[in-house]
Amino acid sequence: MIFVGGVPFSTDPSPQGNNAVFALMEDPILVSVSNTFKAIPEKKFSTNEESSLERSNKWVYVFQREYATVNPATANFVGTDEATTCVGLVIRNRQNGMTSIAHMDSPDIVDMGICQMLSLLIDQNLDAELEVHMVGGFEDASPNYAKSNTRSESSAKLEGYSYPLCAKIVESLCTRREKFHVKTLFILGHNTRRDTQGNVYPIFNGLAVSLNLVLQLLMSHFLGSFHLN
Q1: What is the pTM of this model?
Q2: Is the Cβ–Cβ distance between 182 and 6 less than 8 Å?
Q3: For tag attachment on the chain, is the N or C end more exposed, with fewer CB atoms within 10 Å?
Q4: Across the strands, what pairs with 217?
Q5: Which CATH number is 2-37+64-227's, of 3.10.129.10, 3.40.50.150, 3.50.50.60, 3.30.1330.200?
């Protein structure tokens, strides 16, 4: 079950993931968060600054198709990058601060991946309040393919990689019994920029989450941060 702004989020359940992902992206609260991220001034780190930051903190980093669940007493940051059509998914237990991060690359692994992420987060407590942050994916194909209700096999191949993955993650969160409070949804159109020739690129390629509740979005060598509370 998904909540936004403390209120249960509902959508037409057929097809659930398709409708939900676009409805969530249009939610005023989540749009405001996305616009805030876009307005963050870029900061470029030198090699010395990066090395100093790494030495003074404990990091847990996941690669593509990996996940990690971290106790805030053992690390300062969790993160992932080098994502284009992939999605960085963060789920945090509000009660104990335990945080799980995954670098998902295919709809086929979403259900199993979320089950693994939750296995150490909730300890079978379905009433746990969970915060969710999704960053990644971009409009690597026309949104018209994703919004179409009748897609042929050939047109389905043109819908790209980002949309099916994002839709599957949202569908899984909608249909599970746990309480997911979506705080960040920086995906697809929100995470897309265009150059002068009309080519599209993701704005952010990764994220790092400070376990003191600061979400940082990574764009190549640039970084922006935003307090979650």
Answers
A1: 0.83
A2: no
A3: C
A4: 207, 224
A5: 3.30.1330.200
The reported pLDDT for the residue numbered 57 is 81
User: Which residues are CB-contacts of 65 (< 8 A; sequence separation ≥ 6)?
Assistant: 103, 104, 105, 106, 109
Q: Taking phi first (over 0 means left), then psi (-120 to 50 degrees means alpha), and beta for anything else, what does residue 167 get?
A: alpha
Q: Which residues contact 24 (CB under 8 A, 6 or more apart)?
A: 2, 4, 9, 30, 170, 182, 185
- Domain positions in the chain are 2-37+64-227
Provide, rounded to the nearest whole percent, the portion of the chain with pLDDT above 90: 50
